[in-house]
From TrEMBL:
Gene3D superfamilies named in the record: NAD(P)-binding Rossmann-like Domain
Pfam family, one: 2-Hacid_dh
Family in the record: Belongs to the D-isomer specific 2-hydroxyacid dehydrogenase family.
Protein's UniProt keywords contain Oxidoreductase: yes
Domain D-isomer specific 2-hydroxyacid dehydrogenase catalytic: 26-312
Name this polypeptide is given: Hydroxyphenylpyruvate reductase
Highest rank taxon of the organism: Eukaryota
Keyword Oxidoreductase: yes
Domain (D-isomer specific 2-hydroxyacid dehydrogenase NAD-binding) ranges: 109-281
Coiled-coil stretches noted in the UniProt entry, renumbered to this chain: none
Organism: Citrullus colocynthis (colocynth)
């Protein structure tokens, strides 16, 4: 397979780069301006694109490679791939589901715990020397809270399972009711938020779920409510979130994702009731290796004309 051109859109994980380099003719696109010279020399040999949450395959990139057969994303999220375009051109698409589910769910619970028990804030209190002069105030418990989950897919279900172990009462919103889950279904996101003390966002980003957490949903969650987002930044109307936190209309937030990564609204930096992560929900060594291996196995299967392991299209 050494002669097959594979284009990686941005640096994502050194191990993945090394494994791709061993098997394919790897083009690291960040080292090559996508100019006419590069395309003239290489476009015909590039049969696969490997993208990620930062940089996937938009219509322009897809059109640049006329021999493109498959797009593999080093992520479960598909929002950086022009799926209709891939469908139209008969380009296969694969992602990395399942292997990352537990780590994202762990990160979500970690954020909920960090916000409710004020863990990051109390860590800063100790480091700054404030403990020698003052007492740290009270937090609120995580266990036993009513939890709402937006999207009861693989990750949402893993969050629910963990929250259940903490004695939380689970409700969810999803496109359809999952009768076997045993959790309370809320057809309306607004009702879910009104009945939750902590709202987790873990659905896929689509046109229907963009800004699904809007001003009304935030207000329904209320001044004691906590929002946890491990989905995508665009699930939440970020400027509404910032003003709700500044005005005390929302109790707190734990965010792994933002609308314009890596840029985060600076007003959030001043708020103690907010915990901010740099989109690291999947970033453990174990999961990253499993994701990379899945990308490789899918590409190898494709080029051997074998069934794809995790096909999207
Ligand atoms: O955000 C992470 C992913 O989509 O895998």
């Amino acid at each position: 397979m050494e002669s097959i051109g594979v284009a990686m859109t941005t640096p994502m994980f050194t191990y993945l780069e090394q494994q791709l380099e061993r098997r394919f003719n790897l083009f690291k696109l960040w080292n090559h301006p996508l100019d006419s010279h590069f395309l003239q020399e290489n476009a015909q040999s590039i049969r696969a694109v490997v993208g990620c949450t930062k940089s996937g395959a938009d219509a322009c990139l897809i059109d640049s490679f006329p021999a493109l057969e498959i797009v593999a994303t080093f992520s479960v999220g598909l929002d950086k791939i022009d799926l209709p375009k891939c469908m139209e051109k008969g380009i296969r698409v694969v992602n990395t589901p399942d292997v990352l589910t537990d780590d994202v769910a762990d990160a979500a619970i970690g954020l909920a715990m960090a916000v409710s028990r004020r863990i990051s804030e109390s860590d800063r209190f100790v480091r700054s020397g404030s403990w020698t002069k003052d007492r740290f105030g009270l937090a609120t418990r995580f266990n036993g809270k009513s939890v709402g989950i937006l999207g009861l897919g693989r990750i949402g279900s893993a969050i629910a399972k963990r929250a259940e172990a903490f004695g939380c009462l689970i409700g969810y919103s999803a496109r359809s009711e999952k009768h076997h889950s045993g959790y309370k279904y809320f057809p309306s996101v607004l009702d879910l938020a009104a009945n939750s003390q902590i709202l987790f966002v873990s659905c896929a980003l689509t046109e229907e779920t963009r800004h699904i957490v809007n001003r009304e949903v935030i207000n329904a969650l209320g001044p004691n409510g906590i929002l946890i987002n491990v989905g995508r930044g665009a699930h939440v109307d970020e400027s509404e979130l910032v003003s709700a936190l500044l005005e005390g209309r929302l109790g707190g937030a734990g965010l792994d994702v933002f609308e314009n990564e890596p840029h985060v609204p600076e007003q959030l930096f001043e708020l103690g009731n907010v915990v901010l992560l740099p989109h690291v929900g999947t970033d453990t060594i174990e999961t990253s290796i499993a994701m990379a291996n899945l990308v490789i196995s899918n590409l190898e299967a494709h080029f051997r004309n074998e069934p794809l392991i995790t096909p999207v299209i």
